[in-house]
């Protein structure tokens, strides 16, 4: 049995996420989908799994047109999705989540609890024999990786004919990742169709029988019989090849020039034995004007470390001197006052207030600067003018200062998140910590954000960039620290930057 | 004498009548040098169900006598069965007698309302426009209102131009607002306002004053504040009925003493009567000297 | 390094387990301490009659609160339950006084309750009005209806003895019917919520609506169930109330909303912190009932009782709150 | 691609803008329609005296509701306000009867209200008890205290005339003091919430506590402010209430909780859907006040009024709900 998505188009308010994409999912084969952030991968599989309805185009199953009005319909037709964001019911146990919607019952209504546990354990034993997960614990008490495994088991529980995995390995530790690779091979050997979305290109090449490359919502190429002769380089070329635009974003081995740092620049961040629940950094110095990239697999601690530079309470031991002064257990507020700024990841969760306007979000951290003391009366005119200035400075695309932030695209939201720290505070902040600075941001905006990061450094700030986008780190960073399993393992100088070096550094020796 | 244990179930502790009955009861104890009685007050906050629960708990607690004041006993018939089988006498005030309770002390509300209502009607000289403020939620108040309506049948020249039925929990504010709105609606056309007890009467007067009106208002209960208001020169408060709340408290105490200390039969202390009626005396400006 | 991570994890788990125990049972511990204190403090408390009495006294409240629990499980809050209690408690007596046979009168009252629940859910699930507003407005409407159909008066007389037995009779002379009905409802609801797919799906909808949807659960339907059951249970409670009081009271159920919410909230601090569970709610109602009864028996003044009750609730909930981040809505 | 985005955006924006207009003003439209209907339906409605009356009638409710708005802005719900109204409304008269000078008595009552707010916030922000539970328990405690300090009786007599003037006097013989105080409080609160950094930060804490924290805002402090102001405003309302009633009533404020919530909820459907704003709350209270007054003037029966009010609220909110996903808590 095969599923054909024919000429699928998806128009979101403001974004054309898919533009006439066709793909065919065939039983017994692993179908890889690759593309940059925002290329439309998730949207495509959301349509395939009934979670999103296409604007145009058809789905055919065994040559018959079908419509999946909701995920239930897709599941009933044998299509199961392991979604990118993760969706488990927090207060149910692992076993209960695995069987959710398909509980084994006694006399129709009554859940056979022993059977739930047994089925879940059997599935776990069958597909992840190496992994021990307490399936009788509530999932919100389990580590993130275990939760991901449970999600995969849940998708398998309904014995689907098509299994869709949207970036399943991003958050998996090595052992589970190995098991998942084995699993994918076994499933396709057993005749199941598997759709795999992943940013680990070598993994895609190794596992997939065919690969579809998406770019800006369009299918730009399709490799129908992937043998091992396809190289990562070729795949990257296919993903990034957009004619004129964007070429300079590519990672060119050996062609990187070191930027000159001013001699004797001030040491902004000075760290020794800095340790938290999930990271350990033996020592790091970051000078004014310098950009340090942090890379690692998800869960390897580089994000937590970066965050702890702004939120020192996340660390449990070690020494952190900021502009030569000991930080101790300073609060976020103190760090802000001393001149540190954070542009967090998941901006809608950590940085923005969804139903506020661009102006209100932009002035959130600096509004007191344009207000009348002592009562803090907001001067609307000054607030608006300053917002206007930053909109121009950062080239933010918004119809006005009064547009709601949710109506902006990801990239423009992200620019607001950066602009927030320049609101009437130009030059005040000496350290900028970026987490996933271009999460869900399109290519054009991505470049502008990169330029912004560079300009911050040029104007004398120390910058930390923690990102899972290796190309991005290569582009902006002066040097890179790679994290493995919580530990700052390697430092890589700019002249040694290459994707192979990066991947080796974050994955350790290939297992 | 052995100390008497009393469970006192209050219909709604916030009623002033409740307080005055307690005052009478306490005065009796002081006057008779009784200081070892153990009284537990259980408020039912206006809920018929809580009255039943409180009676049950009092029975379980093993009190000697139960008082129920200003509640509606008819929702507690089952709880009273418990008291009866535990041989605990239940004396009630203004709560309606039903089988299972020993005796109820109450004002004859029909008589009281008849006197007060007629007094107001005579102030109106038997004609004009009347506003009625009342509530359906309290039994004695319904009796008072029904009496008024019965009397009005004989006064075809009196027209009821407005009625407001308030929620007991918020009676003061609601009366104030309603009378204010009647003032807006009818202005000088209003000739008198009838209210079911003294505090709504005060509220009505405040609203009428605000609207610049001066019309007779009646209340009932005869609380000291009302008596004082009636006796103020030029006040709109013209009539109330004085009930003998303190006297009832004395009665409750006497009954308990006679039964528990003197060993009289519970029925004997009311001369075998189920309902002990007290008359209310009409109080108007004429009584002020 | 994988080692380190794992070890750190193992280490974390022991205090976590104790934490979980504290979470699950601190409110329960307060309940038990209270029970023992009363049993020791007053000899009338720990007697068969009194314990049965407590069960009877909490029965109506518990049934309403269990209904609210269904709503909470689906993340909907029903502020109209008190007035539904009143409606059903008036309708059944009114119908019987009008000559309708008992079973039909009961069906009528239950039907009215269910009807309210369905209208609420049409507004909430269909139109998208937040349940807090829809049920607040429904409460205002029902209050008016209750007083209109009763003329503000309690409905007395003409209620058949068989009906009254429902609220006043006892099984084998020991267990009052209201308590029996409550126990059956609690047990049944517990079973449905914990042991059937229905309950599992209701919890899933409240726990993570998107996950539920991806698992093929009809989210909207289950939100309707939550609100409908909440009203239906309030109607059951109203019927028992009118049988127990031997009369239909137009404002009979008004106190059940706040007390019912208190029971659910207290329950949400135990067993599965942050989740409304049937057993949690039952223990919450039991805590309220034991406080009311015990403090009455001790002979504590109503006003002091109210203060003491507030303090006990704060203490009970504080223990959990220090260890868990509770989100009630 | 940027082009496409922009164009698609422009396209989307027209129906969206209308949508926003509908969102912002549908409840307001209902208010205006109602106003016109009453003005045309009854000639006594649209007169200076009556409009002033309406302002006076809603003044205590509005002040409580504005207080609740501060709490809601910080995402905290205060269920104890009704009892704080009662507490302040008793304390001020009690103190004055005991011979304390008026300003000190007022300060005492305000201080007590603020104290309650601070205790609530110690429990909520310090210990982590959810505000719904902490303030529910606080309500129970305060109820007991109110009845204890008053002995259950209303405090009459011995209240100085100057104090009574606060509730019963008029400025220039036209505008009653309660209405004046309310207007000042509404204007002041509006200014603080919309035009100062304080308000901005409070909204930020309620809008997204994590984002606020990472922007250097003292989240915990602002949650304390929200709860403290909510109690303080309830105390102000209680003082005016006792001056207006000429007495301290132990259960004087109990109805303000539900009515206040209704005002806030209705307000949350306008201006900025999903956010409690001072102006929204004021319009919500005004809607309630106009309904009460207008229906009284039309001569509608109390019970029917309650039904009609519920229906009007549902209609007003339904319009917004169809276009916006409202989350109240
Ligand atoms: N619910 C939505 N509403 C509006 N736009 C959306 C929505 N979901 C996705 N988009 C937009 O559609 C485009 C495609 O997004 P999609 O999530 O499919 O990308 P992706 O290839 O999965 O990216 P990633 O690699 O980051 O997961 C993006 O521009 C995104 O911003
Ligand atoms: N409510 C909305 N109104 C108008 N446009 C919207 C709305 N929601 C999303 N969009 C459009 O959809 C696109 C992507 O939005 P989306 O929220 O998915 O961004 P994102 O890149 O995933 O960012 P984030 O990571 O912050 O969620 C944007 O171009 C935006 O203009
Ligand atoms: Mg994706
Ligand atoms: Mg996104």
Automatic annotation (TrEMBL), chain A:
Chain ranges of the ABC transporter domain: 3-241, 256-510
SMART domains linked: AAA
Keyword hit for Repeat: yes
Gene Ontology MF terms: ATP binding; ATP hydrolysis activity
CDD domains per record: ABC_Carb_Monos_I (cd03216)
UniProtKB keywords: ATP-binding, Membrane, Nucleotide-binding, Repeat, Sugar transport, Transport
InterPro entries, alphabetized: AAA+_ATPase, ABC_carbohydrate_import_ATPase, ABC_transporter-like_ATP-bd, P-loop_NTPase
PANTHER family: CARBOHYDRATE TRANSPORT ATP-BINDING PROTEIN MG119-RELATED (PTHR43790), GALACTOFURANOSE TRANSPORTER ATP-BINDING PROTEIN YTFR (PTHR43790:SF9)
Listed name of the protein: Sugar ABC transporter ATP-binding protein
Automatic annotation (TrEMBL), chains C, D:
Any GO MF annotation of the entry: transmembrane transporter activity
Subcellular location as annotated: Cell membrane
Main location: membrane
Entry GO terms, CC: plasma membrane
Transmembrane segments: 21-42, 54-74, 81-98, 104-125, 132-155, 175-193, 224-243, 278-297, 303-321
Bilayer topology: Multi-pass membrane protein
Keyword vocabulary terms for this entry: Cell membrane, Membrane, Transmembrane, Transmembrane helix
Protein name as it appears in the record: ABC transporter permease
């Amino acid at each position: 049995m095969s599923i054909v998505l024919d000429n699928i188009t998806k128009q979101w308010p403001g974004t054309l996420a898919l533009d006439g994409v066709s793909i065919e999912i065939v039983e017994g084969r692993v179908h890889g989908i690759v593309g940059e952030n925002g290329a439309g991968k998730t949207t495509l599989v959301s349509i395939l799994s009934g979670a999103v309805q296409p604007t145009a185009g058809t789905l055919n199953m065994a040559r018959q047109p079908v419509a999946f009005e909701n995920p239930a319909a897709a599941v009933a037709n044998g299509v199961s999705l392991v979604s990118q964001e993760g969706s488990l019911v927090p207060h149910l146990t692992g076993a209960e989540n695995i069987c959710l919607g398909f509980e084994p019952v006694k006399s129709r209504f009554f859940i056979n609890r022993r059977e739930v546990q047994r089925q879940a354990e059997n599935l776990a034993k069958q597909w992840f024999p190496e992994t021990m997960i307490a399936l009788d614990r509530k999932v919100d008490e389990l580590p993130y990786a275990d939760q991901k495994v449970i999600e995969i088991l849940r998708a398998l529980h309904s014995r689907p004919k098509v299994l869709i995995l949207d970036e399943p390995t991003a958050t998996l530790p090595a052992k589970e990742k190995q098991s998942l690779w084995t699993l994918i091979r076994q499933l396709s050997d057993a005749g199941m169709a598997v759709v795999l979305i992943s940013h680990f290109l070598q993994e895609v090449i190794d596992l997939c029988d065919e690969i579809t490359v998406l770019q800006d919502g369009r299918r730009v190429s399709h490799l129908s019989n992937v043998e091992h002769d396809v190289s990562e380089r070729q795949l990257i070329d296919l993903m990034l090849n957009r004619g004129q635009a964007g070429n300079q974003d590519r990672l060119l081995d050996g062609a990187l020039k070191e930027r000159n740092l001013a001699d004797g620049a001030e040491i902004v961040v000075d760290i020794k034995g800095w340790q938290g629940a999930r990271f350990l950094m033996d020592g790091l110095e970051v000078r004014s004007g310098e950009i340090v990239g942090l890379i690692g697999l998800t869960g390897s601690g580089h994000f937590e470390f970066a965050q702890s530079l702004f939120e020192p309470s996340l660390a449990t031991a070690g020494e952190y001197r900021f502009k030569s002064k000991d930080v101790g257990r300073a609060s976020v507020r103190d760090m802000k006052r001393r001149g540190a700024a954070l542009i967090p990841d998941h901006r809608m969760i950590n940085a923005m207030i969804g139903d506020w306007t661009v102006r209100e979000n932009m002035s959130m951290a600096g509004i007191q600067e344009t207000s009348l003391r002592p009562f803090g009366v907001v001067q609307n005119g000054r607030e608006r003018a300053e917002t206007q200035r930053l909109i121009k400075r950062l080239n933010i695309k918004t119809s006005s200062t009064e547009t709601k932030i949710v109506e902006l695209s990801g990239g423009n939201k992200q620019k607001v998140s950066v602009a927030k720290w320049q609101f009437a505070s130009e030059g005040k902040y000496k350290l900028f910590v970026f987490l996933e600075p271009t999460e869900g941001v399109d290519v054009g905006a991505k470049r502008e954000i990169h330029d912004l990061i560079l300009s911050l450094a040029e104007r004398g700030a120390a910058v930390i960039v923690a990102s899972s986008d290796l190309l991005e780190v290569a582009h902006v960073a002066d040097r890179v620290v790679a994290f493995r399993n919580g530990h700052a393992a390697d430092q890589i100088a700019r002249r040694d930057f290459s994707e192979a070096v990066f991947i080796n550094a974050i994955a350790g020796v290939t297992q | 004498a052995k100390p008497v244990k009393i469970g006192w179930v209050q219909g709604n502790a916030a009623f002033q009548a409740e307080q005055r009955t307690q005052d009478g009861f306490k005065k009796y104890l002081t006057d008779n040098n009784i200081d070892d009685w153990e009284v537990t007050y259980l408020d039912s906050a206006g809920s018929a169900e809580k009255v039943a629960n409180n009676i049950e708990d009092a029975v379980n607690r093993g009190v000697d006598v139960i008082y129920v004041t200003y509640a509606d006993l008819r929702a507690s018939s089952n709880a009273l069965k418990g008291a009866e089988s535990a041989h605990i006498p239940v004396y009630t005030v203004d709560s309606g007698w039903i089988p299972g309770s020993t005796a109820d002390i109450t004002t004859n509300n029909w008589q009281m309302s008849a006197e007060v209502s007629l007094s107001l009607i005579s102030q109106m000289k038997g004609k004009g426009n009347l506003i009625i403020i009342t509530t359906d939620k309290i039994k004695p108040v319904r009796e008072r209102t029904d009496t008024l309506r019965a009397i009005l049948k004989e006064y075809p020249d009196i027209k009821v131009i407005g009625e407001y039925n308030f929620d007991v929990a918020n009676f003061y504010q609601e009366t104030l607002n309603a009378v204010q709105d009647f003032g807006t609606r009818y202005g000088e056309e209003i000739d008198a306002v009838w209210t079911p007890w003294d505090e709504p009467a005060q509220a009505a007067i405040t609203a009428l004053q605000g609207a610049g009106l001066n019309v007779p208002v009646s209340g009932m209960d005869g609380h000291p504040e009302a008596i004082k208001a009636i006796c103020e020169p030029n006040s709109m408060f013209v009539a109330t009925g004085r009930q003998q709340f303190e006297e009832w408290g004395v009665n409750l105490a006497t009954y308990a003493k006679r039964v528990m200390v003197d060993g009289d039969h519970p029925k004997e202390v009311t001369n075998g009567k189920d309902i002990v009626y007290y008359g209310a005396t009409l109080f108007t400006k004429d009584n002020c000297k | 390094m994988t080692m380190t991570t794992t070890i750190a994890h193992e280490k974390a788990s022991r205090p976590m387990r104790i934490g979980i125990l504290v979470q699950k049972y601190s409110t329960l511990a307060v309940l038990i301490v209270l029970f023992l204190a009363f049993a020791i403090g007053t000899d009338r408390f720990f007697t068969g009659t009194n314990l049965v009495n407590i069960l009877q006294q909490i029965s109506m409240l518990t049934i309403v609160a269990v209904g609210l629990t269904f709503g909470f499980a689906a993340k909907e809050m029903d502020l109209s339950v008190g007035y539904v209690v009143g409606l059903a408690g008036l309708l059944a007596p009114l119908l019987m006084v009008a000559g309708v046979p008992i079973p039909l009168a009961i069906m009528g009252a239950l039907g009215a309750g269910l009807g309210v629940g369905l209208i609420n859910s049409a507004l909430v699930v269909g139109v998208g009005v937040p349940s807090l507003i829809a049920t607040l407005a429904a409460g205002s409407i029902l209050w008016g209806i209750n007083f209109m159909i009763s003329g503000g008066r309690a409905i007395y007389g003409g209620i058949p003895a068989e009906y009254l037995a429902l609220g006043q009779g006892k099984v084998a002379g020991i267990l009052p019917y209201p308590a029996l009905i409550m126990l059956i409802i609690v047990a049944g609801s517990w079973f449905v919520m914990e042991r059937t797919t229905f309950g599992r799906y209701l919890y899933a909808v409240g726990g993570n609506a998107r996950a539920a949807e991806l698992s093929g659960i009809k989210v909207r339907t289950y939100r309707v169930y939550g609100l409908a059951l909440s009203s239906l249970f309030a109607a059951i409670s109203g019927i028992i109330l009118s049988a127990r009081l031997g009369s239909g009271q137009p404002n009979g159920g008004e106190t059940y909303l706040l007390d019912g919410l208190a029971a659910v909230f207290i329950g949400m601090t135990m067993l599965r912190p942050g989740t409304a569970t049937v057993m949690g709610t039952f223990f919450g109602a039991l805590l309220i009932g034991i406080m009311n009864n015990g403090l009455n028996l001790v002979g504590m003044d109503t006003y002091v009782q109210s203060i003491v009750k507030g303090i006990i609730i704060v203490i009970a909930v504080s223990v959990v709150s220090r260890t868990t981040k509770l989100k009630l809505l």
